[in-house]
Amino acid sequence: MTTPDLYPSRVGGEAELLSRKDPVLHGAAGAEGGPLSRAELASFERAGFLVLENCFSADEVAALREEASQLRERLAGSGKPEVITESGSGEMRSVFAIHRSSAPFARLARHPHLLDAARQILGSAVYVHQSRINYKPAFRGREFYWHSDFETWHVEDGMRRMRAVSVSVSLLENNVHNGPLLLIPGSHRYFASCPGLTPERHYERSLQQQEYGVPAPAILEDLVRRGGLEPVGPPGSVVLFDCNTMHGSNGNITPWPRSNLFLVYNSVENPLGPPFSGQSPRPAHIASRDFTPLDGDG
Amino acid sequence: MTTPDLYPSRVGGEAELLSRKDPVLHGAAGAEGGPLSRAELASFERAGFLVLENCFSADEVAALREEASQLRERLAGSGKPEVITESGSGEMRSVFAIHRSSAPFARLARHPHLLDAARQILGSAVYVHQSRINYKPAFRGREFYWHSDFETWHVEDGMRRMRAVSVSVSLLENNVHNGPLLLIPGSHRYFASCPGLTPERHYERSLQQQEYGVPAPAILEDLVRRGGLEPVGPPGSVVLFDCNTMHGSNGNITPWPRSNLFLVYNSVENPLGPPFSGQSPRPAHIASRDFTPLDGDG
Questions:
Q1: What is the ipTM of this complex?
Q2: What is the H or E stretch that residue A108 is in?
Q3: How many structural domains does chain A have?
Q4: Inside any domain, residue B73
Q5: Which positions in chain A touch B176 (Cβ < 8 Å)?
Q6: How confident is the model at residue A21, as a pLDDT?
Q7: Do B250 and A225 touch (CB under 8 A)?
Q8: Which of A89, A156, B190, B278 is the most buried (most CB within 10 A)?
Q9: Is residue A207 part of a domain?
Q10: Percent of residues in chain B assigned helix, strand, coil, to nearest 5
Q11: Among B253, B83, B237, which Cα is nearest to A251's?
């Protein structure tokens, strides 16, 4: 039995903007029984993201930043597959599975407010599909081109439905000039089907620079014309965003490094199947296949 | 007889922040006899740049933009040395000597307000040292790394003193997200001497991506800590900036292309000599050696 592909992409066709087949808020729990207000849920549903104010104190953000810095030192030169370096400079670009290699980040993944907000949006128990830190150094920080996470998770990881949510925590200031995370409001309501096919072991290159699963310019123009662009803000900013919200960031020539931490919660009712690309699944540190529900007791 | 090098750079030493040996406002004419008010001159002297409001009407800007677009089409694929392409994509990055190949841009170089402002700042008659358009396409626009124009003009063109001024006209909107021209206020009061030596025929690569004459990170940090960053604004914005004001711009992943036109006026009392690199002068379309004063009668 083949699972029908509701979101065909990289199947050799043309770039196309398809409609979303899934709700943004899932289950009956939506409006009740969680930390997000009706207004916040409505805003998340409309824009595809929500900024959570005052989630962490300055001390808590400093502690997360310090842990990110120590993790970076522990892993530098380790050659571990969790570490993605820049293709040119060899500088650290991303570290994956941070909730597996760091006790503070494991605790963060079980932070009651974040976890309950994810459950409220997804209408079920959740597990951590992916976690990572993106470091963007000063002066030489490279761009992250536009993408919907879901497009990759669907094609390369076999995530069937749009029922996952990302939490981004800015560890260092994202200002308008240092390559802040940019989200396209409203873009989550469409699915930007991408042209081309996925090469084998694509992830080994794509995490440095994406060449497949890249939305077409005309589609990006269309999405930005409808929704504009929204940058992520000061240290400690927490943004919940739908798995299909189009986002990206420019390079950084300023003297201000910036780094963002990401936790991705997926519904336990949306476990990964075989990748729709027909290829082997990506490694567990990029896409977990341990669907055990997270409990919030830490 | 050797001309003493007041601004040694790329002479095999360390990166260093030297003091400026030249005034910012030249000659006695400074305060009088020109379109700029005392307050504007003081602001230029302090910050190293000045935004001129309402210099052009919307129609005039549209005409300049149209001419830039036609020039681009005329020159596309021409293989002319005035055209600099991106190293990866082959897209047009810059066109030089635009006041030589376009009648409207030749007229612009003699625009009374711009010309008189340049004369007022430089305290003498002036000629056009260089003119260009930088095109930064949507989605794939590449960065222009931090640089002082004077550093290059001194080392590679033999411009002895800091007595030149650039005029930048934004033809398409520079917003905070599409890789706007960023200036470091106050940076013109120092000279960022660069490490290394200049390779032969450096300009053939440097206009795509600069590798020599690149200020050191610690120096840029220092300058930005003192002065911050100032982005250039909406279409038609005109910015006068000192030849030694540090500037640069990020790449552009947004759907909004941006392009800026530059005219560089140099004092006729500051003609080019032999390059301080000891190498051959760069071609005339990059650094004119026709020091005939511009008259303002068009």
A1: 0.89
A2: helix A103-109
A3: 1
A4: yes
A5: 176-177
A6: 97
A7: no
A8: A156
A9: yes
A10: 25, 20, 50
A11: B253
